[in-house]
Prior knowledge:
Elements: H1 5-36, H2 38-60, H3 64-87, E1 110-113, E2 116-119, H4 121-136, H5 166-182, E3 190-195, H6 201-214, E4 219-223, H7 224-235, H8 245-251, E5 254-260, H9 267-283, E6 287-291, H10 295-301, H11 304-312, E7 314-319, H12 324-330
The protein binds zinc ion.
Amino acid sequence: MGYSNxxxxxxxxxxxxxxxxxxxxxxxxxxKIFEELPKADEFEKAIVDCGIKAGRAVVGxxxxxxxxxxxxxxxxxxQSDLEKLLNTKGYTRRDMEPKYFCEKCNDTGYIEYENRTxxxxxxxxxxxxxxxxxxxxxxKLSLCTFDDFSLDYYSREVEEGYPxxxxxxxxxxxxxxxxxxxxxxxxxxxxxxxxxxxxxxxHLSLSIANExxxxxxxVVYISTPKLLSQLEKEQFSRYKPETSxxxxxxxxxxxxxxxxxxxxxxxFSSQAVxxxxxxxxxxxxPFIVNTNLSLKELEGLYTQRFISxxxxxxxxxxxxxxxxxxxxxxx
Length: 331
Ligand SMILES: [Zn+2]
């Protein structure tokens, strides 16, 4: 996947900020340690001095091996003394070093692999997150959490034709969604949420999105009309961005598509929706899709084969509403 210069720059900045903040924190810890244990500073200078002398010994010639071994022994003894000294105040030598977010690359974003400098996974992740954040910039992502989801609204009466009350059903769904968010991985299943408007589908998908983002995954949350207008704009624009919407849709760790079926339906939209789901099913990475429509209505908009493929590859969550007519048509 290609990324635009803006995405690459922003991702590199994230990594740089992590490195600087780890180093700043280490500097502060060292200052505090040296204040408490002034002798630690002396030990450290002596250890550095051993290194400098070892360098000189190699260049200087003479009995290099003997000199190096002597310096190495001295350095190890100093390191051990320093460690003991630090331990007296509950510190270790590790406290004097920066604690990097990514230990593979020490927050540089790059690693050596088979004699080549390659991008570290952390930088790749930062790019995915940045590209997703760009697509999410207009959504109400930060507004919904599991904590402000209330079950009070749901009826405890079992309506005729239903296996349980909408309250009991929502308890099951809420638990499922919380578990899903908590244990999310790239192998998580897809979710297909059905039910009337105002029953909490959007709220729960946004809550999942928030939790999964907190775990460091790249999540795209987008309504179907918005997704289609973005894809359409891109398709018919002369300017082709380096990070296309379709790339981000394919690449993100979790794709959440809200309000399937509310889009203006035409040949472009059906094909685009088909392409989006096809790409996700091929990549094997999870998606969550919400719809207010019944399966029959969706089949009318797309094809029966396509809808049964999406719903067949996903865990179905049925949100029961109060309106019995529409509830029945949803069954
Ligand atoms: Zn890294």
